[in-house]
Amino acid sequence: MHPGSDTSAGATASGEAADAPVSRPAEPPTAAPEPAAAPSAEPVVRATRRQRVARWCRREARRTALAAVSGLALGFAFPPYDLWPLSLIAVAALALLTRGRTARQGAWTGFAFGLPFFVLLLKWLDVVGWDAVIGLSLAESLFFVALGAGLALTSRLPGWPLWAACLWVAEEWARDRLPFGGFPWGRLAFANTGSPFTPLAALGGAPLVTFGVALASTLLAAAVVALWRVYALAGGRAATAPGTTPSAAADAPLGAAPAAPADAAGSEADEDAGAGPEPAPAARPSGPRLLRGALPAVEAIALAGAVTLAGFLVPVPTDADDTVNIAVVQGNVQQPGMDFLGRPMKILNNHVEATLRLAEDVKAGRKPQPDLVIWPENASDLDPYKYREAYARIDLAVKSIGVPVLVGALVDHPTKKGYVENQGIVWDPRTGPGASYTKQHPVPFGEYVPFRDQLSKVISRLDRVPRDFYPGDHSGVMQVGPAKLGDVICFEVAYDEIVRDTVNAGARALVIQTNNATYGRSGQPEQQLVMSRLRAIEHGRAVVTAAPSGISAVVAPDGTIEQRTKEFTQDVLSARIPLRDDITVADRIGAVPEWVLAMVGVLSCAAAIMVSRRGRTDEKGMQ
Asked: Model-level pTM?
């Protein structure tokens, strides 16, 4: 027998007996040793909830921090910072951080991404209170919980960058509608109003811009995954962990844990599993194999570039069928903040005086004669139909300039006592007030209070909204002098269907009557102005924004901001804007692209769950 062989004691004894001399008598057999007593089984000690939480926090700390930083990066892509390339980096980072994770882990990562993003984006609400900032940010972050879970689920499917982009559209579809009519602030499209993706709006509206940005970003993430796999192979490392394949482990380049097993929904045991022993180094692959491994990265980068440059191929219609001379009056407010109204008639008198000076400048030849004048939202802080003094001041200003004026005013509802309407009123110098448009989408908790009787008992601040605004029931297309304009009031510019319906109803140019005095110098006016840029391209219309304290602006149909005012100044803009009759592809097909892309995203999640369940069933059958 070979020296050093590992044998039992009995075998060794018999071997020695075979080697002994023949004359030696055989030793009597010894009694078989008694079997050793089996060691008593130690009780299994289950980790306490506190220990599991601590272990989870240690494991997820780096991923959570990276998600939070990525969310902040997305916030900096929006005005007033306007660093749109960060939107690509942030979306790609979220795709990498959720790739190969369980749905539960992806949901947490999505929340860690969404909360800091919305806090940075909506910090202008601090004029109301930081509790409002945090509360709204938490509510909006819940949509990113679902997004993160969906990204994790679909990351195991072939073609996952496409499904991820559709999920971004689905997330924005939901935020645009839920709850209380939705709050679409912070859409990827609104961070890309001056990027190569922007012209896509003329084809499919804001949802197609979001899809383009998300697809390019996730394709870049796929390139990172492929390059990381090549790096792992080049280093001769399998980079695997128990229950994963080498390729799945290489899919987590941001320091994340390797891809989870086939259970897509995830379990507590999966999440608490510790890391196994490091695998033995793999053989270093050959050069041709490394090149083949790099091909997916090259393909993903090329596709991302093609998606990014596709916008340059989209024609943006700008040819005018007619033109009109306009003047935009920015009268200013008494003070910024929640109490911007000041004393009664103050804001109205500011706009009357600015219009009277405009009339003097026109008579003196210092400014061109406008065909119509636009006042902003809340230019009259008193109901002109109820208060004769307000009526007289408006009428004086309109007659002095001699052309119709679109007046923003708060008007008591004619039949529903206690309700007020936010209106744009066409005021003619000869016939007085005429056609009007009532804001269709009042802002919840800003212009009306849902569940007022219940909530006002616990939130005293709601008393600052003493009356609810009543919604209008039709689009804002009105004949203002020689032009058929489409009136959109304030936050309505963020809602696709309101603006699209206005254009399809015959608006030849768009007017955004708004009042941002509460949030002046906070970044909110800039965030709203870029929405006007996107709408101009989406609908091929000039967009005129009128605000009592700024930012008032004139935007050309190609999205160029031709004129803009400074905040909290009294000013008048004079411009000649194009009037257009043709509508874009986005207007013709409406919300179809959004619904299709959102549905594909939801169905991809369903497919991922079915594939996961089928895999678990197959494993049980093999056992």
From this structure: 0.86
How many other CB atoms are there within 10 angstroms of residue 270's CB atom?
Answer: 15
From the list 424, 331, 429, 419, the residue with the least C-alpha distance to 384 is 424
Look at residue 264 in the predicted model and tell me its pLDDT. 47
**pLDDT value at residue 41:** 56
The secondary structure element, H or E, covering residue 312 is none
Quick one: pLDDT at residue 233? 78
Q: Residue type for 535, please?
A: R
Tell me the DSSP string of 67-94: HHHHHHHHHHTSTTT--THHHHHHHHHH
Q: What is the DSSP string of 179-220?
A: TTT---TT-GGGG-TTSTTGGGHHHHHHHHHHHHHHHHHHHH
Of the listed ranges 280-284, 322-326, 446-450, the one predicted with least confidence: 280-284
Indicate the SS3 state at residue 435: strand
- Distance (Å, whole) CA 96 – CA 212: 18
Exposed e or buried b per residue across 519-553, where buried means at least 16 C-beta atoms within 10 angstroms of its C-beta: bbebbbbbbbbbbbbbbbbbbbbbbbbbbbbbbbb
What is the per-residue pLDDT for 425?
98
Average pLDDT over residues 211-223: 98
- The confidence score (pLDDT) of residue 280 equals 54
Exposed, middle or buried: residue 563 (CB in 10 Å: 0-12, 13-18, 19+)? middle
CA dist., res. 142 & res. 138, Å (int):
7
Nearest Cα to Cα of residue 255 among 65, 111, 388: 65
Q: Angle, to 10 degrees, between the axis of helix 201-234 and the axis of helix 524-539?
A: 110
**Number of C-beta neighbours around residue 245 at 10 A:** 13
pLDDT surpassing 90 at residue 263? no
The per-residue pLDDT for range 571-615, each reduced to its tens digit, is 999 999 999 999 999 999 999 999 999 999 999 999 999 988 876
Dist CA 294 CA 232 (whole Å): 12
Work out the pLDDT band at 564, boundaries 50, 70, 90. Answer: very high
For residue 357, the Cα-to-chain-centroid distance in whole angstroms is 43
Q: Is 568 left (phi over 0), alpha (psi -120 to 50) or beta?
A: left
Annotated active-site positions, please? 377, 439, 490
d(CA 484, CA 539): 15
Cβ burial, residue 142 (10 Å; 0-12/13-18/19+): middle
Predicted local distance difference test score (pLDDT) of residue 270: 47
CA distances from 276 to 47, 100, 244, 279 (A): 19, 18, 11, 9
Cα distance between the two ends of the chain? 40
The answer to whether the beta carbons of residues 408 and 513 sit under 8 Å apart is: yes
CA–CA gap between residue 83 and residue 130 (Å, rounded): 25
**Other residues' Cβ atoms within 10 Å of the Cβ of residue 28:** 6
- Spatial distance between the Cα atoms of 433 and 417, rounded to a whole number of angstroms: 22
Q: Measured in whole angstroms, how far is the alpha carbon of residue 117 from the centre of its chain?
A: 9
Provide the token pair at 325.
């001379």
The helix-helix angle for 496-504 and 524-539 (nearest 10°) equals 40
The token pair that represents 172 in the structure block? 């924005």
Residue 503 to residue 476: CA distance in whole angstroms? 9
Residue 599 one-letter amino acid: M
State how far the alpha carbon of 71 is from the alpha carbons of 16, 195, 416, in Å.
75, 20, 44
- The answer to whether 464 and 338 are in contact (CB under 8 A) is yes
